[in-house]
């Protein structure tokens, strides 16, 4: 078994950070292309929106068992295999006009993202300890947000100049580059292999689900990221079809909101030593105030500038909550880091996909006020969970 050489540790860490945003790249790069895909493929908006939800569901479900796989069979082989298949599946997506084939490839993209990202999350727990581990896990969530920031910005220009297929050609090239570098510089970091037995996995999952702080953390991660995906599902259609702006402008909007998510992550890292639950409650309170303000202003001001301004502030609070809870959950069980990371991501992204797609399907947002309604549902659910945590602590 090829193990990671100490001299390559820095390069391998950089490569791990490069793989982590893959899920965000795969979801966000084609956001500005979604309206054009619907037109070119002669499909309703909901059919194209489903490609994003399918990815998130398969990505979430995969993480349930991806963690146990990388804890049993290692991080390196799983990562290499995933990157190789990424190249193939992205190329197939770019070359087809069949929506069923696109759906199938999006399922595979989600599965491969699950394996690749879980293996790299566990990498940081394997290689680093103590405060350094805490530091890298916090940075990891910030780096993960790079994908949603740069992907739609790039995707807007790709769509304008080359069409929606170019997004997936670029993803195939990026995957190929990472695969080559991984084969040259990386290696296995798993020191103790956990048995891949159903009874062992059931015990581990049972332990984690019974840890209420871990369980509530997974729920909060899912609701926080659902705010981002909710806007992603409806934002491009509102900006391009309802407001009449170009796909490049839609890309810029996604870039700005990606920066908001990253800003929340940086705030989470800056306040990492502050009391945990109080800062989460303050963030949720500020979030609800912003959403209520968005409601009120929507009756007087409703344009692309007000939409983006409110969404930016709300996404900052969502990124802050996500960064804190995700870092906490991944480091909660260091002896089963792969399983813990996979379970956290799995539950979070299933909640994200189901809740965000459900809200879009019910509300069908076309104006700023309806976007505020969707945000309010998510913010209120977050408040409910935090209230349950407070009540539970009061009874202990």
Automatic annotation (TrEMBL):
Annotated keywords: Membrane, Transmembrane, Transmembrane helix, Transport
Entry membrane topology: Multi-pass membrane protein
Domain of life assignment: Bacteria
Domain Major facilitator superfamily (MFS) profile: start-end pairs: 12-396
InterPro entries: MFS (IPR011701), MFS_dom (IPR020846), MFS_trans_sf (IPR036259)
Subcellular location(s) of the protein: Membrane
Residues spanning the signal sequence: none
Record GO cellular component, one term: plasma membrane
GO molecular function annotations of the record: sodium:proton antiporter activity
Membrane-spanning intervals of the chain: 50-69, 76-94, 100-123, 135-154, 166-185, 214-239, 251-272, 284-301, 307-326, 338-363, 375-391
GO biological process, one term: xenobiotic detoxification by transmembrane export across the plasma membrane
The protein's name: Arabinose efflux permease family protein
């Amino acid at each position: 078994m090829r193990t990671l050489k100490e001299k390559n540790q820095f390069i391998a860490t950089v490569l791990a950070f490069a793989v982590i945003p893959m899920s965000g790249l795969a979801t966000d790069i084609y956001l500005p292309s979604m309206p054009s895909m619907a037109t070119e493929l002669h499909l309703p908006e909901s059919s194209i929106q489903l490609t994003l939800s399918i990815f998130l569901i398969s990505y979430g479900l995969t993480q349930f068992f991806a963690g146990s796989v990388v804890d049993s069979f290692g991080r390196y082989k799983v990562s290499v295999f995933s990157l190789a298949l990424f190249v193939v599946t992205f190329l197939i997506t770019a070359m087809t006009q069949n929506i069923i084939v696109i759906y199938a490839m999006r399922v595979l993209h989600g599965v491969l993202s699950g394996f690749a990202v879980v293996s790299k999350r566990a990498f940081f727990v394997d290689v680093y300890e103590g405060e350094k581990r805490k530091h890298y896990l916090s940075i990891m969530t910030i780096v993960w947000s790079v994908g949603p920031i740069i992907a739609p910005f790039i995707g807007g220009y790709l769509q304008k100049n080359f069409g929606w297929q170019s997004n997936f050609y670029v993803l195939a090239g990026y995957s190929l580059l990472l695969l080559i570098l991984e084969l040259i510089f990386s290696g296995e970091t798993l020191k103790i292999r956990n048995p891949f037995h159903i009874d062992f996995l059931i015990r581990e999952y049972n332990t984690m689900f019974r840890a209420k702080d871990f369980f509530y953390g997974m729920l909060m991660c899912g609701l926080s990221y659902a705010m981002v995906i909710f806007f992603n599902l409806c934002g491009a259609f509102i900006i391009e079809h309802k407001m009449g702006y170009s796909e490049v402008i839609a890309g810029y909007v996604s870039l700005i909101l990606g920066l908001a998510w990253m800003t929340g992550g940086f705030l989470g890292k800056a306040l990492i030593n502050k009391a945990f639950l109080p800062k989460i409650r303050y963030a949720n309170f500020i979030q609800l105030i912003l959403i209520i303000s968005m409601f009120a202003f929507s009756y007087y001001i409703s344009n692309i500038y007000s939409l983006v301004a409110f969404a930016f502030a709300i996404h900052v609070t969502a990124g802050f909550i996500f960064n804190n809870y995700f870092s906490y959950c991944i480091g909660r069980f260091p002896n089963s880091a792969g399983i813990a990371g996979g379970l956290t991501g799995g539950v979070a992204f299933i909640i994200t996909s189901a809740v965000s797609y459900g809200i879009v399907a019910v509300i069908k947002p076309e104006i700023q006020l309806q976007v505020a309604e969707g945000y309010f549902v998510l913010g209120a659910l977050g408040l409910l969970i935090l209230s349950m945590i407070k009540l539970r602590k009061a009874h202990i």
